[in-house]
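#dry-run=false #mode=assembly
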Amino acid sequence: MKNLVFLVAAYMAVWAGVFSYLAYVAGQQRRLVRRLSRLEERLKEKDMVEEVT
Amino acid sequence: MRDALLIARKDLLAEYRKKESIVSMVFFGFLLLVMLNIAVGVGRELDGEMAAGILWVSIIFSAVLGLGRVLSKEKENRCIDALLLSPVEPEQIYAAKTMVNFIFMAVAEAVLIPAFFVLYGDRFARQVPMLVVVVLLVNIGFSTVGTLFSAITAGTRRNEVLLPLLLFPVITPLMALAVKVTGGLFEDLPYREYSSWLYVIAAFGLIFSGVGYLLFEFVIKEG
Amino acid sequence: MDNGFKDRALPVVVGLLFLSALYAIFFYAPTERVMGIVQKVFYVHLSMAFTAFLSFFIAFVSGILYLTRKDIKWDVYGSSSVEIGVVFISLTLLSGMLWARPIWNTWWTWDPRLTTALILWFIYVSYLILRTSVEQEERRAAYCAVLAIAGFVDVPIVFMSARIWRTIHPVVIRSDSIDIEPSMILTLMITLTAFLSLWFLLFKLKTSVALTCKRIRFLENKIEGGD
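#status=ok
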């Protein structure tokens, strides 16, 4: 039964690794999409200002 | 091939006048031999493979010093741009630089290996002609990969730091083989005991001359 | 919103595949007689090793395609699969060590497979380091393509040279026969499929990160250029 400790440890390491990488990439993507939409808004505002002047 | 020989001659002449690479390579290699002698314990009897490991670590670390200089020198004075504008083919530049690295390494080894026998005992100096063959084969493998990778790092911000980081993982198998075969020579084993490893060393050199020959152009044009 | 549906469907499929893989590993596959329960690491371990190796192969092919076609999308594909491959090979090494400690009574041994995995880890981590030290896009792409090719070409040599050391690693799959029970093979296949689908999900995420990055840079240039 001592082996069970190693099994649990191995599975925990694998899932922790997979999930933290997944969370890292997904977080990165979410941050970038937010930044992109902000940029697009700014660009639209600028275009409107240019049209007025 | 003529262009390659001309470029190599130019580099070797410059080195002959200034001696900046060779001196630091030999000095650093010798320093490492002494430091590793202290690390394993002064006066301890080593077996063949351990002694071979020490020799190869010293040679490879000192060779990296010379490798970084050969291409970054051309980058610094923008010589490489002129070479690329001239009708010289990139493959010729690669052949030239590989030759230069090979010769630098061989010269450094001509000093380091005798120094090794002095420090670690001349009982290891048994199959010297075969040792020369092994050393030259390893040099081919090292200089073909090394020249390609030093072209990569010469175009980055952290040239000198990055080169060993990229190069050592790829040449680890070469080093392991070199240690195995050289250890066999130091133990005076018969040829058939290590010949199969010798072929793998030769294959390494052959494969990476091909890889370097094909890929160097793509690296050097991004300068 | 067809695209949006697909984006949400893939994680669900991956999740379901993993649930069935876990079920198969713990309730369907029999417990191995000699090694006991810790053998259940094997399914995940081998699947991840295979997926990592596949990633490096894809990076190798992408490297060749980038150098011949000069299309930056191949650099995005190559770098994404290297990063995922590094994650998987790290976990392969880690799970292997946790299996080896009770079975072989040692964390590490210089077996050809272990040595190859470790050297692959070094090569592709150095690839990721190289990426952070070159700023100009085309130059970085060319350098990384060259490293991906040279690194993959090195693999057979690494494996050959690692035979220097004796092996204690179990050989489960030989060319002539497979050395395990059918139910274990089925479990392995399910786990492998789960990991391949996870790889695909990560790959899609990673490439869309790179594409969003590019779009942001493009818009930023447009805003600054207009001022």
